[in-house]
Amino acid sequence: MGFTTWAELRWAARAEAVVHLDDLLPRRVRLGLTMPHGGMDYLEHIHDTVVSELGWDEICWSKEVTEYSRLWKQYYSFPGQRD
User: Fold this and answer.
1) pLDDT at residue number 5
2) Residue 32, in any domain of the structure
3) Is the pLDDT of residue 81 over 80?
4) Is the pLDDT of residue 3 over 60?
5) Packing angle between helix 43-54 and helix 3-15, nearest 10 degrees?
6) C-alpha–C-alpha distance, residues 37 and 22, integer Å
7) Which of 38, 52, 65, 73 has the smallest set of CB atoms within 10 Å of its CB?
8) Half-sphere exposure in the Cβ direction for 6 (13 Å, CA)
9) Does a structural domain hold residue 83?
10) What's the rounded Cα separation, in Å, for the pair 13 and 17?
11) Structural domains of the chain, count
C-alpha cells in the first residue's frame, strides 16, 4: 500500500467521526473491500496509524479488531474463507 493510502487512513480516522474499525476500513477508506482478507494483514500498521487519532487504548483496539474480523468473515469474505 502506498503513502496516499496511509495518509487517507489517518485523515479518515481524524476527520470523519469514525467510531468502529468496521466503519473505517470498509466504508471510509474501502480497504476492507479492496485488500485481501479485508486488510487484516496490515492491522499492525493500521493500528500505528489510527489508534492515537481515534483515542483508543489497547483494550478498545483489541475489541475492535475482534469485531471487525468477525463481521468481515461473515459478510465480506467468500464462503470458502469463513471459519
Assistant:
1) 85
2) yes
3) no
4) no
5) 30
6) 13
7) 52
8) 11
9) no
10) 7
11) 1
Distance (Å) of CA 72 to CA 17, 61, 65, 77, 80: 21, 16, 10, 6, 13
38 contacts 72 by C-beta, under 8 angstroms: yes
Cβ-based neighbour number of residue 32 at 10 Å: 23
Q: Evaluate if residue 1 carries a pLDDT over 90.
A: no
User: pLDDT digits over 30-73, tens only?
Assistant: 999 889 899 999 999 999 999 999 999 999 999 999 999 999 99
Is residue 15 domain-resident?
Answer: yes
DSSP string, 42-75: GHHHHHHHHHHHHT--HHHHHHHHHHHHHHHHHH
Domain membership of residue 46 as a residue range: 3-78
